[in-house]
Amino acid sequence: MIRAVVLLVLALSACTVPGEPVPGSGPVTARVDVQFRPVEEVVPGGRASPPDVLVDGDGVAYRLAAGIGDFTRFDDVRAEVDPQGTWVVTIDLTAEDAAVFERWTAENTGSQLAIVVDGEVVTAPVIQSAITGGTVQIAGNHTREEAEELAEAIAGG
């Protein structure tokens, strides 16, 4: 039984191309711009006016402040199912970025923070409490395919 598990792991590891990033495989450098930007206001009926007014996939326009840090390197980026059975993209921040993110969320509980990927607002949740531990989830009504595509876009897959 143990021999079969070891062979399966070795067979699966042989399916990747050396040197190419694989979402969910560890440290990655974002290939697209990823920003965490405070929402200054939701603009009813607004249109995109980059770089400060961006529209999400549902047509909601947000006036955004400058980003809260430089998030270009991540410990991991992956698509996965959360405990509620919903597909999400999970980003594990580096220790340095986790400290910045924790500090900002602790000081801005109740504020809305947009997660902007490649110039598009993918989600803009209200911060309910300080986010500790360095793990950020991009949640929504993602299908498996959408979550995997977003993780690949961020991770450079």
Automatic annotation (TrEMBL):
InterPro entries referenced in this protein's UniProt entry, alphabetically: SecDF_P1_head
Pfam hit, one: SecDF_P1_head
Keyword annotations: Signal
Name under which the protein is recorded: SecDF P1 head subdomain domain-containing protein
Domain SecDF P1 head subdomain: 74-157
Keyword Signal among record annotations: yes
Organism annotation: Actinokineospora guangxiensis
Signal found in the keyword field: yes
Cleaved signal peptide residues: 1-19
